[in-house]
Fold each of these.
Amino acid sequence: MATVASTGVEEFKNATCAKLRDVRCPVHRQPPRIRFEGQSLREVTVNLSGCCSRLLDLANRAIGTRQ
Ligand SMILES: [Zn+2]
């Protein structure tokens, strides 16, 4: 049974994954890997990893955050 907070987190995760769906490294053709930390919408953070900094730039731009 989901709480309101975790529902918000799931929506955030889904929205973030949707934004990254079309992101691929132009050099290596790799998609970014995403990891979420935090149990509530207020504390959730997104950890991006990928083959190179260029992919991370594109991924950060796609989700609209700088890390
Ligand atoms: Zn790359």
Amino acid sequence: MVRELVVIGGASAAQSTAVYASRAGVDVTVVADEYGGQINNTDVVENYLGFKSIEGPELAERYVEHMRDYDVEEVLGHRAVDIRRPDHFEVELENGEVLEALSVVIATGGSRRKLGAEGEKEYAGRGVGYCAVCDGPLYQGEEVAVVGAGYAATEAVDYLTDIAEKIYVINRSEGFSGEEITIDRIKEHDKVEHWENSEIVEFYGDQLLEGAVIDKNGKEVTLEVPGVFIEIGTKPNSDLTGLVGKTESGRIEVDSQMRTGVKGLYAAGDVNDKGVQQLAVSVGQGCIAGLNAAEYVKEVREGKIS
Ligand SMILES: Cc1cc2nc3c(=O)[nH]c(=O)nc-3n(C[C@H](O)[C@H](O)[C@H](O)COP(=O)(O)OP(=O)(O)OC[C@H]3O[C@@H](n4cnc5c(N)ncnc54)[C@H](O)[C@@H]3O)c2cc1C
């Protein structure tokens, strides 16, 4: 059996793709290891238009409910591990099952890079965060720490200077890298204290994070902060295909229509190289990918393309 459109992913980009493609009259199959995506890791979303404040998991659930208003086939519980194109597309799942399809949208998002420090997992979402722009406002007038000193970290520190009382920047090496204008701003800022050659060894607390033990220049110190943002970048979940062009950091290259270099194969959301990594963008890109993939499927159906 050859399916019409297979969408790989289980969150905003995938579910938006599924809704738009279904409404355009195409049979859609969604393949996901699990539903929710990154938004499951945040307490509150306050910048998604139409919802002044909504818990991340609730918004994720609403996406699924909305998708289920349509006749979408769901293949859950297994990651897709390969995409081939011998004739039609073939999507291989980790259990060995292969789904054939006329068109495929990759919406596998990204995973925040983790530190691997003790207690990190335990306090994730309870003081340890991976997105200062999303959760920074929760620490109005408080002291926080940012781990990293690259592009993501410098942007995070810059953003937090308007919110927090003080920002400790913890980084393993020396100096900052990122945009000069941002670096100049934060280097001079009296709220920012840069701890170079420093590394978090352990997070501690009770129900919520209370602080971190840090190896500061070879000396172990304790930093009492209710919030630590680990901003050492995101890893795109793009390993499942070698068919498409990717940036150095592994993001799938697409054009403004979410097309990869392979006809009928699209990528939407955080996994691609377009736009800021936010829900509004991934939902919008899902719309574009869904409509274009539907158009492509119809042309194959009508024999206009093979
Ligand atoms: C802590 C945190 C807080 C955030 N807060 C906000 C916020 O307040 N506002 C905002 O706009 N944005 C926020 N973001 C960013 C937002 O979550 C992302 O931009 C958005 O989730 C991207 O959606 P996506 O569908 O592209 O990918 P993801 O959310 O990463 O979802 C990818 C999905 O694909 C599945 N998947 C991955 N690989 C495979 C595979 N091989 N096979 C099958 N399934 C696979 C995953 O399980 C997941 O379901 C936050 C991010 C984080 C980490």
Amino acid sequence: MVIKKIIFYVLNKFIREKKNYINAEAIVREDEWEKLRKLIGKGFSWFIITPSNYDYCRNVFNLKIEKSKFINILKSRISFLKYEKEKIFLSIHLGKVRGFLENDLQEKKFKEAIEFLNSVGIKPRKFIILDDVYNKETITIAKKYGLINLVNLNLHIVNPLLKIVKFFRIKTTFIGEIYQNLEKKYFKNIFYLILGEFRNTREKTIHVEALVREDLWTQLKKKVIGKGFTWFIITPANYDYCKAYFNLKMKKKEFSETLIKRLKFLKNKEENIQLHIHFTKDKRFLENRTQKDKFKEAMEFMNSQEIKPAKLAAGWWIFNKFTLTLVKKYGIKEISNYNINPYLKKKSINEITISYVHKYWHDFDFL
Ligand SMILES: [Zn+2]
């Protein structure tokens, strides 16, 4: 007990009080707004997403509205918050991979974001960057738009560790995961993470979603092909997601054609090709309709390439019972899921196997 108390005391000293911040990235959704509006008047700082991240929001939070409607809803939320005298700042997403950041795209996103906020009478000085992906140029661009304080919600102790990892170019999510669990005080998970670092997976799996980019594809050919990976590959059903996350400039048609070329190449090399679909980042926003549509498009694409996937990995590991029925309908036998426990055995639900991985890769890890 005493030891536990000491650990908590030390942790609390190091963990920045995150309670004062709201990352309002799904604020346009009615259900989310119902939840968030209860926090008005409690002294929070609201970091709000803007129309410059419309694509991002639409995919990640399963929105079904046009951009103009998105803008209108956002405006009404902000005026409500302003009327209640809440503190409003900027939340922005620039991409998922530092290596894919381009100055013109960053410039465009900041410009649109700030113009929007100015149009509703807000001149933010503080901002957060979602996914924590930015570079030196970002800071220069942000400054130009009057943003002088980049708020980092990370732990104090984690930042120096991340710097060391970056300095030595070590590619690992280990520290980030330790941090997340530390923050939630899941000590059992930290124990599993450490064990998992030493334990190999039965199957090396890679989630493949940025492979249409030439720069990444060159690396994948060198580093991943022929190394016994199972490739869970994205399809045009997630074109919007890929565009928002990997700064793609190509249209959907070119995206599909490039993907087809890649698949042919991989098939020729006899790589193990399976299915990857992103539905939504938050289980609360997972709808049957979205799943049906995405599944249909993804499977039609795969089948048109004479690929019959037997396994599915859902993006962000978000799926539910309905996913299991869809999987069955399309002849998929196995869904892979993440679990921090490296010793968890696979199980079967309605003849569908749920297999667990404690370690997996993304294609962009190999950039
Ligand atoms: Zn993914």
Amino acid sequence: MAQAGQRKCRSCAQFFVPDRRNRTRQRYCASAACRRASKIASQAAWVGKPENQDYFRDPCHAARVRAWRAVQPVANVRVHAQTHQRPVDRFAEGQANLRPLHPVGFNLARVCSVRVSPQFRVALDANHYSVPARYAGQNLLLKAYPDRVCVYYRD
Ligand SMILES: [Zn+2]
């Protein structure tokens, strides 16, 4: 039961006494986990506002971050906490094992058998593709690539 002046924490649901300087606004208790939850919630609320959606997306911000990265290239050269190695060194080791991409590329087609409608069309997803009229009523092989659709008659 809440005592006078106490409030229920939004994170842990325990009753706490808000700091008197912030008693009308404090919604989370002072424990580290709840302060972290408060920070996450307030940042998510800020990012969720429509006026803040593009706040850091201006070209001036991109240039600022690029300039900062150029002077402080820390991410790739500091010792990693788990591996105790620098990522740049690990990449140099692993680079010897990398092989070039296959020159022909991979076959990414989705293959299916389709029946040609009496209006000599084949259906793929929500689209209809016309084929030569002589294939009406036949079964054809369809290969759907990311950038094109190929239809085959007898291999
Ligand atoms: Zn709490």
